[in-house]
Amino acid sequence: MKIYGVMLSPFVRKVHVICAEKGLSVESVPVGMGSKDPGFLAASPFRKIPAIDDDGFLLSDSSAIAHYLEAKYPAVPMLPADAEGRARAVQYDEIADTVLVPAFAKLFFNRIVAPRFLKREGDLAAADKAEAEELPPLFDWVETVCTDGWLVGKAFGLADIAMAAPFVNIEMAGCVPDATRWPRLSAWLGRVRGRASFTRLAAVEAAILRS
Ligand SMILES: N[C@@H](CCC(=O)N[C@@H](CS)C(=O)NCC(=O)O)C(=O)O
């Protein structure tokens, strides 16, 4: 299966981690936004990353891909089987994509993407303001939903992956939640980031950042 998209995107990271957890072999096609790669354009009509080509089945949107992979490769489940657990996981995935990612992106875009990849200055004041004012209430909320184990049910899954993925981006941008202020969040994040599916990607991501 081909996965289109650079790993620095939290949405792309989500799909790679799911595939790793499920033991699927993938080929990474690290296209960026605005790529004219014909395979990517066919798979992602609005040119958003990630997209996949699974033996000719083309699909974009990380959540759509997550649900496709769950249905097609169910042996290692990433979603709870019960109605409440499944709904909660879908909700946390959506919150990660629509609340955490846009807020966290203010740090990642202005401190990393703009200077390193677009060769222009980022709006550092906007990044600092987001870090000081927008992120703490979001960390407060995550703190309330963290348990001693995984976010939903007893097993690691989509909710953990989707919610942790954007934290990788803010860490790259120099922001790590204070473990004394957000101890449950920090401990949960440590457990997630310690999984092989995350640590293997970290090496690739570090190389991209160095390039
Ligand atoms: N809901 C989509 C969001 C994907 C998305 O917005 N990806 C960004 C990169 S992080 C992108 O491709 N942006 C390009 C654009 O908006 O033109 C998903 O979950 O895959």
From TrEMBL:
Q: Does the keyword Methyltransferase apply?
A: no
For the keyword Transferase, the answer is yes
InterPro entries recorded: Glutathione-S-Trfase_C-like, Glutathione-S-Trfase_C_sf, Glutathione_S-Trfase, Glutathione_S-Trfase_N, GST_C, GST_Omega/HSP26, Thioredoxin-like_sf
One Gene Ontology cellular component: cytoplasm
Read off the PROSITE patterns from this record: GST_CTER, GST_NTER
Tell me where in this chain the GST C-terminal domain is found: 82-211
Q: Which Pfam families match?
A: GST_C, GST_N_3
Q: Which UniProt keywords apply?
A: Transferase
The record's GO molecular-function terms, alphabetically, read: transferase activity
Q: Gene3D superfamilies annotated for this entry?
A: 1.20.1050.10, Glutaredoxin
Q: Which residues form the GST N-terminal domain?
A: 1-77
PANTHER family linked to this entry: GLUTATHIONE S-TRANSFERASE OMEGA, PTHR43968
> Which protein are we looking at?
Glutathione S-transferase family protein
The species this protein belongs to is Sandaracinobacteroides saxicola
